[in-house]
Design goal:
Elements: H1 5-24, H2 28-35, E1 38-45, E2 51-56, E3 60-66, E4 70-77, E5 82-83, E6 86-89, E7 94-96, E8 100-101, E9 107-112
Parallel strand pairs: 1-9
Antiparallel strand pairs: 1-4, 2-3, 2-6, 5-8, 6-7
């Protein structure tokens, strides 16, 4: 009645071991993405020159480029309730935008003035 059962069990063992190992694996990246807190930064460039925008997170990290007379939206990790962006224009020169305060879930808006 149970003839050949041992062979079937032995054949199924590698599959069960693989299935058990897959259950032990975690997707740490997915959890990290959920735990990571982001803010949305909107930069409006009223200047004719292209601007490179930097976000200070201990060191200046480039978050993106905003074309002349355009707007761009960036998502960055949120570190501090006050954010001050640095801007470097394509034609030369750099400056800091006025600091903004806020919290998670808000859209932080910055304007690069036309008269630089």
């Amino acid at each position: 009645m149970f003839a050949g059962t041992g062979k079937r069990i032995r054949k199924g063992l590698p599959f069960l071991a693989l299935l058990a190992a897959a259950g032990c694996v975690t997707t740490g990246g997915a959890r990290d993405d959920r735990d990571r807190e982001e803010i949305v930064i909107e930069v409006q460039n009223d200047n004719f020159n292209q601007a490179t925008v930097y976000y200070p997170d201990g060191s200046s990290r480039r978050i993106g480029i905003v074309g002349g007379k355009s707007k761009a939206t960036f998502r960055v990790e949120w570190y501090h309730p006050e954010v001050e962006l640095s801007v470097r224009l394509l034609t030369g020169g750099s400056f800091r935008l006025r600091p903004r305060s806020g919290g998670r879930g808000e859209i932080w808006r910055f304007i690069i003035p036309a008269n630089l």
